[in-house]
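WARN no homologs supplied; continuing
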Amino acid sequence: MRWPLGFSTLGCPGRPLAEVADLASGTGWRRLELRAAPDEPIHIGLDARARAQARATLSQAGAEPLVVASYVRVADGTVDDEACVHDGLAHARLAADLGCRFLRVFPGAAGGQGGSGGQDADARAIRRLRAMADRLPSGVSVLLETHDSHPRGADVARILAAVDHPRVGAVWDVLHPWRHGEPVAETAAALRSWLAHVQIKDARSPADLRPVFLGTGSVPLTEVFAALRDLDYDGTVALEWEAKWYPDAPPLVEALRRGADYLSGDLAG
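OK structure emitted
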Protein backbone atom coordinates (compact mmCIF):
# COMPACT_ATOMS: atom_id res chain seq x y z
CA MET A 1 0.00 0.00 0.00
CA ARG A 2 1.54 3.30 -1.05
CA TRP A 3 -0.24 5.49 1.53
CA PRO A 4 -0.01 5.47 5.32
CA LEU A 5 -3.04 3.73 6.83
CA GLY A 6 -5.25 4.78 9.70
CA PHE A 7 -8.70 4.31 11.13
CA SER A 8 -11.39 6.29 12.88
CA THR A 9 -12.39 5.51 16.44
CA LEU A 10 -15.96 5.62 15.16
CA GLY A 11 -15.26 1.92 14.62
CA CYS A 12 -14.59 1.22 18.31
CA PRO A 13 -16.86 3.66 20.14
CA GLY A 14 -16.07 4.28 23.79
CA ARG A 15 -13.08 1.92 23.85
CA PRO A 16 -10.29 2.92 26.27
CA LEU A 17 -7.54 4.81 24.53
CA ALA A 18 -4.90 2.23 25.46
CA GLU A 19 -6.91 -0.46 23.62
CA VAL A 20 -7.28 1.80 20.59
CA ALA A 21 -3.55 2.50 20.56
CA ASP A 22 -2.71 -1.22 20.80
CA LEU A 23 -5.11 -1.96 17.95
CA ALA A 24 -3.45 0.68 15.78
CA SER A 25 0.07 -0.56 16.46
CA GLY A 26 -0.89 -4.23 16.24
CA THR A 27 -2.66 -4.01 12.88
CA GLY A 28 -0.43 -1.56 11.00
CA TRP A 29 -3.24 1.01 10.70
CA ARG A 30 -1.20 3.34 12.88
CA ARG A 31 -2.70 6.74 12.19
CA LEU A 32 -5.79 7.68 14.15
CA GLU A 33 -8.85 9.81 13.67
CA LEU A 34 -9.92 10.46 17.23
CA ARG A 35 -13.66 11.01 17.48
CA ALA A 36 -14.21 13.90 19.88
CA ALA A 37 -17.47 13.51 21.77
CA PRO A 38 -18.65 13.33 25.39
CA ASP A 39 -19.07 9.55 25.15
CA GLU A 40 -15.46 9.04 24.02
CA PRO A 41 -12.11 9.13 25.85
CA ILE A 42 -11.27 12.20 23.74
CA HIS A 43 -13.33 15.37 24.17
CA ILE A 44 -12.79 19.07 24.81
CA GLY A 45 -13.58 18.67 28.52
CA LEU A 46 -10.23 16.98 29.17
CA ASP A 47 -7.89 19.02 31.35
CA ALA A 48 -4.21 19.56 30.57
CA ARG A 49 -3.08 16.55 32.56
CA ALA A 50 -5.56 14.20 30.86
CA ARG A 51 -4.53 15.49 27.44
CA ALA A 52 -0.85 14.90 28.19
CA GLN A 53 -1.64 11.40 29.45
CA ALA A 54 -3.65 10.61 26.32
CA ARG A 55 -0.83 11.77 24.09
CA ALA A 56 1.67 9.67 26.03
CA THR A 57 -0.57 6.59 25.84
CA LEU A 58 -0.71 6.83 22.06
CA SER A 59 2.99 7.53 21.69
CA GLN A 60 4.06 4.65 23.92
CA ALA A 61 2.07 2.21 21.78
CA GLY A 62 3.47 3.56 18.52
CA ALA A 63 0.12 4.95 17.37
CA GLU A 64 0.03 8.31 15.61
CA PRO A 65 -2.80 10.73 16.39
CA LEU A 66 -3.59 12.55 13.16
CA VAL A 67 -7.13 13.98 13.23
CA VAL A 68 -9.48 15.21 15.90
CA ALA A 69 -12.86 14.37 14.38
CA SER A 70 -15.16 17.03 15.76
CA TYR A 71 -18.86 17.61 15.22
CA VAL A 72 -18.46 21.32 14.64
CA ARG A 73 -20.81 22.33 11.80
CA VAL A 74 -19.54 25.44 10.10
CA ALA A 75 -22.60 26.01 7.87
CA ASP A 76 -25.19 25.41 10.58
CA GLY A 77 -27.61 28.31 10.82
CA THR A 78 -28.97 27.27 14.22
CA VAL A 79 -25.84 28.55 16.01
CA ASP A 80 -24.25 31.97 15.71
CA ASP A 81 -20.81 32.70 14.33
CA GLU A 82 -19.18 33.35 17.68
CA ALA A 83 -20.36 30.07 19.20
CA CYS A 84 -19.33 28.04 16.15
CA VAL A 85 -15.87 29.59 15.93
CA HIS A 86 -15.36 29.22 19.69
CA ASP A 87 -16.27 25.52 19.47
CA GLY A 88 -14.00 25.01 16.49
CA LEU A 89 -11.03 26.63 18.20
CA ALA A 90 -11.60 24.61 21.38
CA HIS A 91 -11.36 21.45 19.30
CA ALA A 92 -8.31 22.81 17.47
CA ARG A 93 -6.57 23.32 20.82
CA LEU A 94 -7.44 19.74 21.73
CA ALA A 95 -5.87 18.61 18.45
CA ALA A 96 -2.70 20.57 19.20
CA ASP A 97 -2.46 19.16 22.72
CA LEU A 98 -2.78 15.60 21.40
CA GLY A 99 -0.26 16.12 18.60
CA CYS A 100 -2.82 15.95 15.78
CA ARG A 101 -2.19 17.83 12.56
CA PHE A 102 -5.83 18.17 11.59
CA LEU A 103 -9.23 19.14 12.93
CA ARG A 104 -12.18 17.70 10.99
CA VAL A 105 -15.34 19.82 10.74
CA PHE A 106 -18.66 19.22 8.95
CA PRO A 107 -20.69 21.62 6.81
CA GLY A 108 -23.97 20.72 8.60
CA ALA A 109 -26.42 23.22 7.18
CA ALA A 110 -29.83 22.44 8.65
CA GLY A 111 -32.24 20.92 6.14
CA GLY A 112 -29.50 20.65 3.57
CA GLN A 113 -28.97 16.90 3.32
CA GLY A 114 -27.69 16.10 -0.15
CA GLY A 115 -27.69 19.65 -1.40
CA SER A 116 -25.56 22.74 -1.03
CA GLY A 117 -27.64 24.20 1.77
CA GLY A 118 -27.91 27.39 -0.31
CA GLN A 119 -25.89 30.57 -0.54
CA ASP A 120 -26.51 31.52 3.07
CA ALA A 121 -25.00 28.22 4.22
CA ASP A 122 -21.96 28.75 2.01
CA ALA A 123 -21.51 32.26 3.36
CA ARG A 124 -21.66 31.04 6.97
CA ALA A 125 -19.09 28.33 6.32
CA ILE A 126 -16.74 30.72 4.52
CA ARG A 127 -16.98 33.35 7.24
CA ARG A 128 -16.43 30.91 10.08
CA LEU A 129 -13.58 28.99 8.46
CA ARG A 130 -11.77 32.25 7.78
CA ALA A 131 -12.22 33.29 11.40
CA MET A 132 -10.91 29.95 12.66
CA ALA A 133 -7.99 29.86 10.24
CA ASP A 134 -6.51 33.10 11.54
CA ARG A 135 -6.57 31.83 15.14
CA LEU A 136 -5.58 28.16 14.83
CA PRO A 137 -2.86 26.87 17.16
CA SER A 138 0.51 26.18 15.59
CA GLY A 139 0.70 23.00 13.55
CA VAL A 140 -3.05 22.43 13.19
CA SER A 141 -5.12 22.83 10.03
CA VAL A 142 -8.90 22.60 9.75
CA LEU A 143 -10.41 20.25 7.17
CA LEU A 144 -13.96 20.39 5.80
CA GLU A 145 -15.44 16.98 5.02
CA THR A 146 -17.58 16.00 2.04
CA HIS A 147 -20.66 15.35 4.16
CA ASP A 148 -24.32 16.15 4.92
CA SER A 149 -25.37 19.45 3.28
CA HIS A 150 -22.20 19.60 1.14
CA PRO A 151 -21.56 15.98 0.16
CA ARG A 152 -19.86 16.47 -3.21
CA GLY A 153 -16.35 17.59 -3.96
CA ALA A 154 -17.79 20.51 -5.90
CA ASP A 155 -19.77 21.64 -2.83
CA VAL A 156 -16.73 21.66 -0.56
CA ALA A 157 -14.42 23.14 -3.20
CA ARG A 158 -16.77 26.06 -3.69
CA ILE A 159 -16.34 26.98 -0.01
CA LEU A 160 -12.60 26.35 0.15
CA ALA A 161 -11.90 28.42 -2.94
CA ALA A 162 -13.63 31.36 -1.28
CA VAL A 163 -11.85 30.84 2.07
CA ASP A 164 -8.49 30.67 0.27
CA HIS A 165 -6.34 29.93 3.31
CA PRO A 166 -3.34 27.54 3.41
CA ARG A 167 -4.50 26.01 6.71
CA VAL A 168 -7.99 25.15 5.52
CA GLY A 169 -8.35 21.98 3.46
CA ALA A 170 -10.58 19.04 2.65
CA VAL A 171 -11.39 15.54 3.84
CA TRP A 172 -12.65 13.30 1.04
CA ASP A 173 -15.11 10.85 2.56
CA VAL A 174 -15.43 8.64 -0.50
CA LEU A 175 -18.96 7.47 0.31
CA HIS A 176 -20.88 10.72 0.13
CA PRO A 177 -19.90 12.17 -3.26
CA TRP A 178 -20.52 8.74 -4.80
CA ARG A 179 -23.94 8.26 -3.25
CA HIS A 180 -24.95 11.71 -4.45
CA GLY A 181 -23.96 10.95 -8.02
CA GLU A 182 -20.65 12.78 -8.40
CA PRO A 183 -18.17 10.71 -10.46
CA VAL A 184 -14.89 9.94 -8.73
CA ALA A 185 -12.85 11.83 -11.32
CA GLU A 186 -14.94 14.95 -10.73
CA THR A 187 -14.55 14.72 -6.95
CA ALA A 188 -10.80 14.32 -7.27
CA ALA A 189 -10.52 17.25 -9.67
CA ALA A 190 -12.64 19.47 -7.43
CA LEU A 191 -10.63 18.70 -4.28
CA ARG A 192 -7.19 18.61 -5.93
CA SER A 193 -5.94 21.88 -4.44
CA TRP A 194 -7.11 21.19 -0.89
CA LEU A 195 -7.05 17.43 -0.30
CA ALA A 196 -5.32 16.58 3.00
CA HIS A 197 -7.05 13.41 4.21
CA VAL A 198 -9.08 10.54 2.75
CA GLN A 199 -11.64 8.35 4.48
CA ILE A 200 -12.41 5.02 2.82
CA LYS A 201 -15.35 2.70 3.36
CA ASP A 202 -17.62 0.42 1.39
CA ALA A 203 -21.39 -0.09 1.27
CA ARG A 204 -23.84 -2.26 -0.65
CA SER A 205 -25.53 0.63 -2.46
CA PRO A 206 -26.24 4.36 -2.18
CA ALA A 207 -29.43 3.44 -0.36
CA ASP A 208 -27.91 0.82 1.97
CA LEU A 209 -25.02 2.39 3.86
CA ARG A 210 -24.36 -0.38 6.38
CA PRO A 211 -20.60 -0.96 6.48
CA VAL A 212 -19.25 -3.91 4.52
CA PHE A 213 -15.65 -5.05 4.15
CA LEU A 214 -13.57 -3.11 1.64
CA GLY A 215 -13.98 -4.48 -1.87
CA THR A 216 -17.23 -6.33 -1.17
CA GLY A 217 -19.64 -3.44 -1.80
CA SER A 218 -20.40 -0.94 -4.53
CA VAL A 219 -18.26 2.08 -3.68
CA PRO A 220 -15.84 2.49 -6.65
CA LEU A 221 -12.66 2.10 -4.63
CA THR A 222 -10.61 1.08 -7.67
CA GLU A 223 -11.39 4.45 -9.22
CA VAL A 224 -10.68 6.26 -5.95
CA PHE A 225 -7.19 4.81 -5.65
CA ALA A 226 -6.46 5.48 -9.31
CA ALA A 227 -7.52 9.09 -8.80
CA LEU A 228 -5.32 9.44 -5.72
CA ARG A 229 -2.34 8.16 -7.70
CA ASP A 230 -3.08 10.64 -10.47
CA LEU A 231 -3.20 13.43 -7.88
CA ASP A 232 0.14 12.31 -6.38
CA TYR A 233 -1.68 12.24 -3.07
CA ASP A 234 0.73 11.53 -0.23
CA GLY A 235 -1.56 11.76 2.80
CA THR A 236 -3.27 9.11 4.89
CA VAL A 237 -5.98 6.68 3.85
CA ALA A 238 -8.17 5.98 6.88
CA LEU A 239 -10.90 3.39 7.31
CA GLU A 240 -14.09 4.85 8.72
CA TRP A 241 -15.90 1.78 10.03
CA GLU A 242 -19.20 3.17 11.30
CA ALA A 243 -19.80 0.77 14.19
CA LYS A 244 -21.12 3.62 16.32
CA TRP A 245 -24.09 4.03 13.98
CA TYR A 246 -24.35 0.33 13.00
CA PRO A 247 -23.68 -1.67 16.18
CA ASP A 248 -24.38 -4.96 14.42
CA ALA A 249 -21.41 -4.42 12.09
CA PRO A 250 -18.55 -6.94 12.36
CA PRO A 251 -15.77 -5.99 14.79
CA LEU A 252 -13.35 -3.29 13.71
CA VAL A 253 -10.36 -5.62 14.10
CA GLU A 254 -11.86 -7.89 11.44
CA ALA A 255 -12.56 -4.94 9.16
CA LEU A 256 -8.94 -3.83 9.53
CA ARG A 257 -7.62 -7.32 8.81
CA ARG A 258 -9.84 -7.77 5.76
CA GLY A 259 -9.07 -4.25 4.64
CA ALA A 260 -5.32 -4.83 4.83
CA ASP A 261 -5.67 -7.97 2.73
CA TYR A 262 -7.69 -6.06 0.15
CA LEU A 263 -5.26 -3.15 0.00
CA SER A 264 -2.19 -5.36 -0.23
CA GLY A 265 -3.21 -6.47 -3.71
CA ASP A 266 -2.60 -4.73 -7.01
CA LEU A 267 -5.62 -2.46 -6.53
CA ALA A 268 -3.85 0.22 -4.51
CA GLY A 269 -0.78 0.25 -6.73
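The domain at 5-268 is CATH 3.20.20.150 (TIM Barrel).
OK
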